Amino acid sequence: MQAVREFLQQHAAMMLLRSREHLTLTVLAMVVAVALAVPLGVFLSRCRQSWVVSGVMGVVNVIQPIPSLATVALTVVVFFYIIDFTGTTLLRSIGMQPALVALVAYALLPILRNTYTGLRQVDAAVIEVAVGMGMTRRQILFSVQLPLALPFIMAGIRISTVWTIGVATLVSLVGAGGLGDPIFRGLANYRMDLVLAGALPAALLALLLDTLLARLEQWLTPEGLRDGQSD
């Protein structure tokens, strides 16, 4: 207990600061990723041109095989050349902006794929019943398809959130802050206390956000569907 007390006295303030930076990066990236991927998944689920679906999915899929550190580095390079070519002062090649772009790029695929899959797997008979009741396409989407696809969508969001927390430890290398800073400083100086001060809060953040999203999924799921899932 004495060792734990000394550890917290030495690192608690830094851990809180870096955890707040890490959480900010993760939440901002996830908000943007959800805002992009869910509407795009809805569009693709209704698109009749298969080449459009395969093309969009192919573009998003390209990002995943690239190592996360390489993605962060390439984003910095792209920002650098955009700034150099346009002369804009609104962008920064180091810091929060390229970090968020890299995190959003990594978070897109699970949400997009699960949204598309969840909507496509809604039973056609259920949709026919809704049409027979006189519901419009908009009403069917929001009252039938999205509630039924919600478990798939939330699963994608939860996977992306955990991924983003992990990748966000790397963006400290480009000046974006977060829990990667004490981890890499600890590894560079053989300070295992610093490594633990970064790794432990990151693991706890992943568990906490995954639990909160599971509760949110349960709250958003209509009561009838919730009862069906519990059975």
List the helices and strands and how they pair.
Blueprint: H1 2-46, H2 50-63, H3 68-86, H4 96-120, H5 124-132, H6 137-168, H7 180-189, H8 192-220, H9 223-230
Characterise this structure:
By secondary structure, the protein is mainly alpha-helical. The protein has one domain (26-44, 67-220): MetI-like (MetI-like fold, Orthogonal Bundle). The protein is built from nine helices and no strands. The chain has helices at 2-46, 50-63, 68-86, 96-120, 124-132, 137-168, 180-189, 192-220, 223-230. The chain is flat and about 65 Å long.
Secondary structure: number of strands: 0
How much is the average pLDDT? 90
Structural class assignment: mainly alpha
SSE series: HHHHHHHHH
Give a brief outline of the structure.
With 231 residues, the protein is mainly α. It has helices at residues 2-46, 50-63, 68-86, 96-120, 124-132, 137-168, 180-189, 192-220, 223-230.
Features:
single chain; 231 residues; mainly alpha; MetI-like fold; 83% helix; 0% strand; flat
